[in-house]
From TrEMBL:
Keyword Amino-acid biosynthesis applies: no
Gene source species: Clostridium sartagoforme AAU1
Protein's UniProt keywords contain 4Fe-4S: no
Keywords: Hydrolase, Metal-binding
Name recorded for this polypeptide: Aryldialkylphosphatase
Entry-linked SUPFAM superfamilies: Metallo-dependent hydrolases
PANTHER family attached to this UniProt entry: PHOSPHOTRIESTERASE-RELATED, PHOSPHOTRIESTERASE-RELATED PROTEIN
Length: 291
């Protein structure tokens, strides 16, 4: 396996604990993150896409320390998540002002630092409904994308409403090859996955190991079919670790589960190394123009 593995959808820190009323949803375990990332680095991980944005507990200082301690490249995000986790400013300003904030974080830097956002995301929709403020965020994100060319990562609740998200992007003439729809593995619907891929977007199987939603055996089976149909250049993989209980030391699977447990499962399915390198290395490099 190529030694430039990229995790497509993670949160270096995230705080959804207030709304969820669950301290487990405050990911601030810096020491554990650093130790697990050192292990990832040793196993060939070069880069992680951090999709924590405005109002989700983003911290450039925290991320900088993780980068310095581990040597892993971390790309950071701008944007707004979804209801009910949106910050107050989303309700107070219009789409154009919102887009201006995103563009500023892409061109000049996040939170008055020199760290520039490489990603617009994760921007999300609710279960079976796009809320008014969510649509507003999507439209502002489209404007920022058109001005800067920055890739977009979305959140789909349980993998749903991907086609509706794509409709918004099409209305703004967004480059769909720069869009990644997250959590599509949670849909459990192979035909739907193909319909999404046929539009030209990328999809993420980024809840690897969350067998309470979908079993990894099914994820591997769907990936085999999709790869055989020629879609491996539009699929990315990740874990989406968001809770303290997800860390290995706390009894969770830990970040390396993707490499240690899921990757062998893909090889067992006789998915070729070429397809696996597309999903773990080449696609993200192409989307973000990484060398």
């Amino acid at each position: 396996m190529n030694k430039e593995i990229i995790y497509a959808h993670e949160h270096i820190t995230i705080d959804l604990s207030g709304v969820k009323k669950d301290i487990d949803c405050f990911l601030n375990n810096k020491k554990q993150t650093i130790e697990e990332f050192k292990d990832l680095k040793a196993k060939g991980v070069s880069t992680i896409i951090d999709v924590t944005n405005r109002g989700m507990g983003r911290s450039t200082e925290y991320v900088a320390e993780v980068i310095n301690e581990t040597g892993i490249n971390i790309l950071q995000s701008t944007g707004y998540y979804k209801e009910p986790f949106l910050p107050e400013e989303v309700y107070k300003i219009n789409e154009k002002k919102m887009a201006k904030i995103l563009v500023d974080e892409i061109i000049n830097g996040i939170d008055e630092t020199s760290v520039k956002a490489s990603v617009i995301g994760e921007i999300g929709t609710s279960l079976n409904k796009i809320e008014e403020m969510e649509k507003k965020v999507f439209e502002a994100s489209c404007m920022a994308h058109l001005e800067t060319g920055t890739p977009i990562i979305t959140h789909t609740t349980l993998g749903k409403l991907g086609l509706e998200q794509i409709d918004i992007f099409k209305n703004f003439n967004v480059d769909l090859s720069k869009v990644t729809l997250s959590h599509i593995d949670l849909s459990g619907d192979l035909e739907y996955m193909v319909r999404l891929l046929d539009t030209g977007v990328n999809i993420a199987f980024d809840t690897i190991g969350k067998n309470n939603y979908q079993p990894d055996e099914k994820r591997a089976e769907w990936l085999k079919v999709l790869c055989e149909k020629g879609y491996s250049n539009q699929i990315v993989l990740s874990m989406d670790i968001t809770r303290k209980s997800h860390f290995k030391d706390n009894g969770g699977l830990g970040y390396s589960y993707l490499i240690d447990n899921f990757l062998p499962r893909l090889y067992e399915k006789e998915i070729s190394n070429k397809h696996i390198e597309n999903m773990l290395v080449n696609n993200i490099k192409n989307i973000y123009r990484l060398k």
